[in-house]
Amino acid sequence: MLTLSCKDVGVNCDHVCKAETEEELMEKAKQHAIEDNHFSEEELSRPETQNKIKSFIKRT
């Protein structure tokens, strides 16, 4: 199981995304960030943003 916490990424939000694959987790995180935290898809698609987010993924 993979998890990604908004707080770990630096967003003031208690949401934690969970998924079996990194691809699925990143898609869930992207949708949450756009819908609930008001990030733009453009911002989330930048390679530097993707790399930062991926660095906070936890494997359990």
Report on this model:
With 60 residues, the chain is of the alpha+beta class. The protein has one domain (2-59). Helices cover 55% and strands 17% of the residues. The protein has helices spanning 6-9, 22-37, 41-45, 47-54, and strands at 2-5, 16-19, 58-59. The longest helix is centred in the middle third of the chain and has 16 residues, at 22-37. The radius of gyration is 10 Å and the shape is globular. The chain starts with a strand and ends with a strand. 8% of the residues are buried.
Give the helix/strand layout:
Blueprint (H helix, E strand, L loop, with lengths): L1 E4 H4 L6 E4 L2 H16 L3 H5 L1 H8 L3 E2 L1
Structural class: alpha+beta
Average pLDDT reading: 97
Rg from Cα: 10 Å
Q: Sheet with the most strands?
A: 3 strands, antiparallel
Beta content comes to 15-25%
How many domains would you count in the coordinates?
A: 1
What coarse outline follows from CA principal-axis ratios?
A: globular
Poorly predicted ranges: none
Q: What's the N-to-C terminus distance?
A: 5 Å
Secondary structure tally, helices:
4
Number of strands: 3
Element order: H for helix, E for strand: EHEHHHE
Q: Which strand order do you get reading across the main beta sheet?
A: 2-1-3
Helical proportion, percent range: 55-70%
Summarize this structure as a short list of keywords or feature phrases:
single chain, 60 residues, alpha+beta, 3-stranded antiparallel beta sheet, 55% helix
